[in-house]
Automatic annotation (TrEMBL), chains A, B, C, D:
Belongs to the CsoR family. It comes from Saccharothrix texasensis. The lineage of its organism: Bacteria, Bacillati, Actinomycetota, Actinomycetes, Pseudonocardiales. The keyword Iron does not apply. It is found in: Cytoplasm. Keywords: Copper, Cytoplasm, DNA-binding, Metal-binding, Repressor, Transcription, Transcription regulation. GO terms for cellular component: cytoplasm; protein-DNA complex. GO terms for molecular function: DNA-binding transcription repressor activity; metal ion binding; transcription cis-regulatory region binding. The keyword Cytoplasm applies. This is DNA-binding FrmR family transcriptional regulator.
Length: 93, 93, 93, 93
């Protein structure tokens, strides 16, 4: 999260909202709410987590990867490979 | 969640674990952990939420949709349509 | 695809359109078109394939699964399990 | 696809294979093959398209984005933003 400090509060706020959504899901299940409504809420929480990921990845490209590429050398290749692998995990999750 | 009572505890347990993962994510961000590691953990939490969805959907087909289809009539069609829409939201989330 | 005969033409038409999109992608690559534009077109083809899946699954629930559930017995459970597994593959693809 | 020339043949080969998969899907539908089997094959074609996307994106980061970042300036920011948007489309497709 180095270099992310400017956005740290925004990321934390989003994650706290996701935590609230997951707690809301538990209440829905405890109250025997209708399955389809629970599924709709899970889709919303999943999308919120995905939005956090995409935001972090954007920052990561802008800062960590950009820094490594500007400096060049082996580390630059490693950073790009690492970012590509993270994108692949994101796409497949 | 009607008809899900048998699995209610299992679903709640899984959702509490996801809540723990999301709290863990907040700690990682607060501690300025490396962005790629945060992304890996978000992918894990997303997969866990997806597994809850798939479990709920399976139960929903087995119980609600099956009941409606056994009884037949207009409600059966409506239940299948509703399930298909939930699947579409799941696939696109 | 039994029971799908009514929609067969529509499904085939959609698949032929996807085939055209994939051939268009080959031309884009041959013509050295800009990578980001190629990615946008791949996303469109992927969405088109997904729409075919969701349509087929909806039909499958309405016909095959509904028939099995109406008849009841072991086969009904097997059909629901099979559908749930197909949904899981769809969500994870 | 500039800068991708080295991989062009590999990308084209993969896309031709996807085209073959989509044609195979049409035959399956024409032959009234079982819906679940068609869904399994669509999932395979979708994964193949996704793999092409991830490969192109990796190359794009390594070449186009890396070049822009090494040169710096406004174009570097634009390239990163464009890549992030392509990743978002990929994740949501």
């Amino acid at each position: 999260m180095r270099g992310y400090t400017s956005d740290k509060d925004a990321v934390l706020k989003r994650l706290r909202r996701v935590e609230g959504q997951v707690r809301g899901l538990q209440r829905m299940v405890e109250d025997d709410e209708y399955c389809i409504d629970v599924l709709t809420q899970i889709a919303a929480a999943t999308k919120a987590l995905q939005a956090v990921s995409l935001g972090l990845l954007d920052e990561h490209l802008k800062h960590c990867v950009a820094d490594a590429l500007t400096r060049g050398g082996e580390n630059a290749d490693a950073k790009v490979r690492e970012a590509s692998e993270a994108i692949a995990r994101l796409v497949r999750s």
